[in-house]
Design goal:
binds adenosine-5'-diphosphate, binds magnesium ion, globular, 10 helices
Length: 226
């Protein structure tokens, strides 16, 4: 069995270092994709999505680097609160509340397994839906997030270990692409009505980046340095 196929759900293999890698990878891919996210938002919103998230994740990462004593769940709560405070627009508070809820669900434990992370990510999605009332198909974050969790759950049930994170990222990307023909029913893009069709949703796109960062964070150290 290769290192990358080693089941990760069998034991509590995810820890503070994993959460730090997740936030670092998220901050760096959002920074790289900042202009792309902003261009997508220019087409059906107000051209601030990349700028908003880049500022928020940079601030969140700075807090993470200042807080080396906190357990992983508390770190995510801190990142969430930082996003809520530092990012305007719809997506900052939605992602911030989501990450705060993911962190609360993980609690005070020093380590957790992929099943606990799935439960926590589900709590985060529920918070986004509670606050934003979007359903799948409304052309939002939910269109990438919900299928990612379904794919992750299926893969964990099948005992696929770390591949669950790859499946989640792939499903988030498929959900992101599937927003292109949709008419928006939530957020600013909904003001355009049918004219919102034909454009990829910026929030679904940033959600796919966050699942890509999760996949990168879970890879064993040996594979990352290879
Ligand atoms: P704003 O629209 O306030 O400028 P952003 O540009 O940062 O905020 O984020 C826009 C993204 O937020 C959209 O592409 C969409 O995916 C997401 N979004 C907007 N409203 C909702 C909602 N009610 N539920 C879930 N996601 C939403
Ligand atoms: Mg915007």
């Amino acid at each position: 069995m290769t290192r990358s196929n080693r089941p990760i759900s069998a034991s509590a293999g995810l820890d503070r270092a994993f959460v730090v890698r997740w936030i670092e990878a998220a901050a760096s891919s959002i920074h790289e994709q900042r202009d792309h996210l902003t261009q997508l938002d220019a087409a059906i919103g107000d051209a601030d999505h990349g700028i908003n998230l880049d500022r928020g994740f940079e601030a969140g990462l700075a807090r993470v680097r200042d807080s080396d004593a906190l357990p992983p769940g508390r770190l995510l709560q801190l990142v969430g609160e930082t996003l809520i405070l530092s990012v305007g627009g719809a997506a900052g508070p939605l992602y911030g509340s989501c990450l705060r809820e993911v962190g609360r669900s993980l609690g005070e434990d020093e380590a957790f397994d992929a099943e606990a992370l799935l439960v926590a990510l589900r709590a985060g999605l529920q918070e986004i839906v509670r606050l934003g009332a979007a359903a799948e198909g409304d052309k939002t974050i939910v269109d990438a997030y919900a299928p990612a969790l379904s794919a992750m759950e299926r893969a964990l049930r099948a005992g696929r270990g770390a591949a669950a994170f790859t499946n989640a990222r792939e499903a988030a990307e498929a959900g992101m692409r599937a927003t292109i023909p949709l008419v928006a029913h939530r957020g600013r893009a909904s003001y355009l009505g049918p004219r919102s069709a034909g454009h990829q949703d910026p929030g679904a796109t940033s959600t796919a980046l966050l699942f890509g960062a999760l996949e990168a964070a879970v890879r064993p150290a040996a594979e990352r340095s290879a």
